[in-house]
């Protein structure tokens, strides 16, 4: 037996040469790229972006899903909006536990502490305390200087007695 009988036939797009010698595709040959067909590109972006849904959007979708009466309508809504059934389950849970309040997005990250109403007064008092401490230190240094000057003057000046008689 010859090996040519066992070769598998492969189908390639049929091409023929036009008058100028360039290859052209026949009518039944498949198109080679999405750009030629005008179809949108389906590549996945390099970094995915987290989707955020507003509370009003969530309520709108839940109301639309609740109005759906025929089988397959909910699936059609989910496909149209690009959602999953888990979104609906979570949103229903949030709606039932606290309506719109629970549907508002929570801020991520560390929570900021509430400012103490007495904090501002405490800050001003601490600032005044630091100012007064500096003033006290300056006054103590001045007193020390006066003591030293007085001690020097007492040593260098002869002491004269003052009595009340003139």
Distance between the termini: 158 Å
Please state the CA-atom Rg, rounded to the nearest Å: 45 Å
**Average pLDDT value?**
75
Structural class: mainly alpha
User: What oligomeric state is this?
Assistant: single chain
Q: Please tally the β strands and state the result.
A: 2
Task: State the low-pLDDT regions, or none.
Answer: none
Estimate the strand proportion: under 5%
Q: In percent, how helical is the residue content?
A: 40-55%
Please write the string of helix (H) and strand (E) elements.
EEHHHHH
* Overall body shape: rod-shaped
Question: Count of helical segments?
Answer: 5
Major beta sheet, strand line-up:
1-2
The main sheet comes to: 2 strands, antiparallel
Describe the structure.
- This protein has 166 residues and is mainly alpha-helical.
- Among the domains are: 49 residues, no CATH class; 37 residues.
- It is built from five helices and two strands; from the N terminus they run ββααααα.
- A two-stranded antiparallel ribbon has the order 1-2.
- Strand 1 and strand 2 form a beta hairpin.
- Helix 2 crosses helix 4.
- The longest helix is centred in the C-terminal third of the chain and has 38 residues.
């Amino acid at each position: 037996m010859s090996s040519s009988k066992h070769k598998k036939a492969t189908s390639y797009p049929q091409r023929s040469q036009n008058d100028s010698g360039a290859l052209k595709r026949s009518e039944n040959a498949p198109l080679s790229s999405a750009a030629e067909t005008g179809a949108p590109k389906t590549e996945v972006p390099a970094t995915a972006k987290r989707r955020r849904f507003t509370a009003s959007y969530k309520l709108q979708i839940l109301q639309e899903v609740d109005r759906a009466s025929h089988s397959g309508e909910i699936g059609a809504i989910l496909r149209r909006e690009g959602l999953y059934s888990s979104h609906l389950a979570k949103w229903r849970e949030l709606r039932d536990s606290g309506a719109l309040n629970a549907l508002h997005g929570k801020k991520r990250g560390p929570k900021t502490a509430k400012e103490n109403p007495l904090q501002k007064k405490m800050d001003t008092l601490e600032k005044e305390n630091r100012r007064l401490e500096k003033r006290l230190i300056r006054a103590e240094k001045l007193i020390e200087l006066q003591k030293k000057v007085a001690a020097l003057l007492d040593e260098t000046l002869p002491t004269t007695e003052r009595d009340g008689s003139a």
